[in-house]
Amino acid sequence: TKIYVYGGRDISSVKDAMEIYETDPEKGSTYNTWDDVTTSSKGPHNPTPVRNCAAVSTGTKILIFGGNPTTSSSIAIALVQSFDIASKKWDAPVSTAVFARYFHSATVLNGFVILSGG
Q: Which candidate, 5, 4, 106, 19, places its Cα nearest to that of 55?
């Protein structure tokens, strides 16, 4: 099982961190590892640091929708970011008609990505 963690915020800035946690109960506790791919995943396309975004997996990509790119709580962006799971690299940002939003949710249902709230 792999868990992907992107973005977030600390006391002073919004992060563009991408971390992957991999676990396999059959291999025991020594297999439970974190892989920080923040630096190696960049170039030629770099992600926009965001917090309060929503994300889904298509199986081959992780799509990250919107979010807040600042430490201020009043700014949202209309952006879709795409992370390629196999290459562990960022794709070019997707131009989209999605409204700027943060504090929203996303899911995949029958092959469709559904965004709600924000």
A: 106
The angle subtended at Cα 49 by Cα 94 and Cα 56, nearest 5°, is 55
Q: Is 73 exposed, middle or buried (0-12, 13-18, 19+ CB in 10 A)?
A: exposed
pTM: 0.89
pLDDT tens-place string over residues 78-92: 999 999 999 999 999
- Distance from C-alpha of 18 to C-alpha of 34, rounded to nearest angstrom: 10
Interatomic CA distance for residues 2 and 4, integer angstroms:
7
Residue bearing tokens 């868990």 = 3
CA atoms within 13 A on the CB side of 86: 3
| DSSP 3-state of 8 | coil
Beta strands in the chain (DSSP E): 2-6, 18-22, 33-36, 54-57, 61-65, 80-84, 89-90, 104-109, 112-117
Question: pLDDT per residue over 31-81, tens digit each?
Answer: 788 999 999 999 889 999 999 999 999 999 999 999 999 988 788 999 999
